[in-house]
User: Fold this.
Amino acid sequence: MFSSLSPDHLACLLPKTWLDGKAKATVTGLLFGTITGVTGILLVLSLLTMYIFATEYARRYLYSWFWNTHHLYPFVLALIVLHGTARLLQEPTFHYYLIDLPSSSHSIN
Assistant:
């Protein structure tokens, strides 16, 4: 792995990717051995497929393929949730953006 950080900083930032504190995890291990890696690959492939079939040519001549591939949205959303549950870098914080907390900008004077 290439990094601009020292191994000590990486061990602190990515504690689950270091096996025994000395040996580094491999890129292959991170891509195919973690939930984050596998769901990331599946997300890229799903979105790439949807992008390809959203082109004008596909919409015009392969409309059924366009329609069927765009039914992958629930699958993509499920993968996004799974992608964040592994906590490879930090605890998930996406739910903070779903909760509207009262603040001074929302108060009625």
Remarks:
- Residues 34 and 76 are 18 Å apart (CA to CA).
